[in-house]
Recover the amino acids of this structure.
């Protein structure tokens, strides 16, 4: 009798503690909190009735045994569904990646360039040389061509600036009287931090996140949308580095 009384007192306390624990660990919506409260209340009522002797213990054990048996029988089929669940998770991650304001960043010796994932708009700043501190958007075509000449020895900076010129000043090649492709120069080696910046990801990104970000960016960098070989190669190199 005393054991049943203690059990009746402890069950609500345990239910309250469990609800608080779950709420702190998991970020639940209002609907999820409501269903959690209903579920715990139902389990609590059944537990109290069993403790009072109004329901036999088999009322709980029988459904649990049936559920366990069904789970073991369905386990092979559930294991076969895991690849599909992984694919659906990858699609969900891909949809999360396309958020307003998300950007990729490419840094070279002379430039820091950002690419908006939604609009595919490029913006940049000069970080070294005579034009250091100037925004590319504030510079005239003549100044941009002077900058292109100044960073001629840095292959990454040249090709990144050429990509910007091709998007903002499509006729820049005629004004410059030169090829769109850098012939020589030193190219920056890829690092994990740089690769994550290029794809617009944070540390801890999973394989599905990397693949989805790469696919999303390659759509934006199609030549018909103002992309070029350098940007596409940079995105491909970032994906390959992270997946290796």
């Amino acid at each position: 009798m005393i054991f049943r009384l203690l059990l009746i007192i402890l069950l609500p306390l345990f239910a309250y503690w469990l609800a608080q624990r779950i709420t702190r660990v998991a970020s639940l919506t209002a609907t999820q909190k409501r269903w959690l409260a209903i579920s715990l209340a139902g389990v609590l009522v059944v537990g109290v009735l069993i403790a009072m002797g109004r329901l036999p213990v088999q009322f709980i054990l029988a459904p649990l045994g049936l559920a366990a048996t069904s789970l073991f029988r369905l386990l092979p089929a559930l294991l076969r569904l895991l690849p599909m669940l992984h694919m659906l998770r990858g699609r969900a991650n891909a949809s999360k990646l396309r958020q307003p304001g998300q950007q990729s960043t490419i840094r070279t010796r002379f430039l820091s360039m950002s690419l908006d994932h939604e609009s595919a708009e490029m913006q940049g700043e000069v970080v070294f040389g005579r034009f250091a501190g100037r925004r590319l958007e504030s510079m005239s075509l003549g100044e941009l061509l002077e900058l292109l000449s100044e960073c001629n020895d840095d292959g990454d900076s040249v090709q990144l600036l050429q990509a910007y010129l091709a998007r903002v000043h499509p006729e820049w090649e005629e004004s410059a009287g030169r090829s769109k492709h850098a012939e020589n120069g030193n190219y920056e080696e890829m690092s994990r931090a740089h690769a994550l910046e290029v794809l617009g990801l944070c540390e801890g990104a999973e394989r599905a996140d990397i693949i989805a970000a790469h696919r999303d960016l390659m759509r934006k960098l199609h030549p018909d949308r103002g992309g070029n070989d350098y940007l596409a190669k940079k995105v491909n190199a970032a994906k390959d580095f992270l997946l290796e």
Summary: Residues 2-91 form one domain. The beta strands are 103-107, 111-116, 122-126. The longest helix spans residues 58-97. The CA atoms of residues 110 and 128 lie 5 Å apart.
